[in-house]
Amino acid sequence: MLPQWLLPAAPPADSVPGRRQLVSTQVEAYLGWHPDAEIIRSQPGLGPMLSARVLAEFGDDPHRYASAKARKNYAGTSPIARASGRKKVVTARFVRNDRLIDALIAQAFSALRVSSGTTTPTSGGPRARTPRPPVSGLCGTTSVRADPR
User: What is the pTM of this model?
Assistant: First the structure.
């Protein structure tokens, strides 16, 4: 058995939620000082933590990206199209900022969960539909893209 001074110090279980809340309020306060905070927070699915993460990964220099396409290329969300003669191949972009794409995927799932355009069948919203089982055999993001709801 290891001596007590060699064991890692673990915080008490009741202080972890308190620390999480403290960090969340500090991030939200610092994010409020940023000039683009209102624009970023207006995106559906972006709370204070995801907004700060997306802003940190994209950077806050307004002249960093020449166009919206350059920003999409950096995020890894634009496809790569290669054409040769009559053949055209469109593939996914695999070289990308993984931390940014993780935050954007979390934003997409959060926006789908709370969006008024994706209502449940019982709510009677504009896109009310009959319930269906999820597309089987596919991972999370692929099943969202493959589901034509």
Answer: 0.64
